[in-house]
Amino acid sequence: MIPPLFLSTGRVVPHTRVKICGITNPVDATVVAEAGADALGLVFYPDSPRAVNLAQAQDIAGALPPFVQIVALFVNEPAEQVRRILASLPLHTLQFHGDEDAAYCEQFRRPYLKAVRVRPDMDLAAVCGSYSSASGILLDSWQEGIPGGTGKVFDWGQARRAFPRPVVLAGGLNPDNVGRGIELLRPSAVDVSGGVEQSPGRKDASKVSRFIAAVRAADQRLNGVSNDD
Predict the structure, then answer these.
(1) What's this model's pTM, rounded to 2 decimal places?
(2) Residue 145: CB atoms within 10 Å
(3) Mean pLDDT for all residues in the chain
(4) Does the annotation count 140 as an active-site position?
(5) How are the residues of the chain apportioned to helix, strand and coil, as percentages rounded to the nearest 5?
(6) Catalytic position from the list 21, 38, 105, 191
(7) Is 21 a catalytic residue?
């Protein structure tokens, strides 16, 4: 369960976690951490323009301050390769974006997120229900042949229902729309990549700061807290 943020007034503000995905270098990792992100994502999918190898990932991990989580993203990766990376990096959470079933995800005995690419005709609740062991369900946009990072927003109306696990909202988020997504769906966390970039794999410090500020502002609005409180 996501812990609330307590104000000096005694009121409780929802605290939406922020993950910045697709980090490819230590400089961007430092920028993201200093901006206040809760987690960063490393993509171990060779076809992605944001992919990193193990040596790059180790450099990134070495640049992080304490308590910033590292999430490793995989797409239909052989289990032995996942284990090799797990043995070489201080990973907190695994994120699976392919056709992995629950048994595959559970075998690593590590908290995991299962990405579900939302299509108009799918039974979203049934698909998500197959992953009751997941730490969270990451809702992303569907596009043929692309397992994630499409930069497109799915129909958020499909996700206005109860889910068996906490929801991580992804898919086309940016500083201008993330607040609306939070207010509509009340996710436990949000996940962004392209929406805070200057080019694929290179983050824009200003966009990262604006994104996180928009998340915090949405959290405050949900509890009726103004900037003056």
Answers:
(1) 0.88
(2) 5
(3) 88
(4) yes
(5) 30, 20, 45
(6) 21
(7) yes
